[in-house]
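Sample intake sheet
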Amino acid sequence: MRRLQSLVAPLAALALAALWATGCSVIRSDPAKATRQYPFWLKPGETIDAQAIADGDTMVIVNATPRTFENVDVWLNQRYLCHVDRIEAGENKRIPMGDFWDIRGEGPNPGGALRYFQPTPIRLVELQLDATQPLIGLQAVLTEVETR
């Protein structure tokens, strides 16, 4: 019995250390995928008739405009960036949340059934056409999950 008691404290400490280590590893981080800084120096431009909606671990951009956007950068919450080759006029463009990265190589928390954290809410979505033009705003549509 005494031997069992002497093993309890080290085993408990080991179990806590293992839980702590796995808890830290679920944050999406990959320094090799670090992007550039959000362009705070660019003025916000127009807000177009396009919506950004969370759908599980995907963002859906509903482009209800007659404009097609080519080679654009999609900014999420003034932090995360994803380059998109083309968003067609009238298209529902699906972008996996796993494609977004920030300047430190961290990504937003995607939704889905097997998530560890609440998904990163889609609060502000902007399109950057180039290095000088104003950013184009999209209408972020909060889902029930994001308003909890």
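Comment: Residues 72 and 84 are 5 Å apart (CA to CA). DSSP finds one helix and seven strands in the chain.
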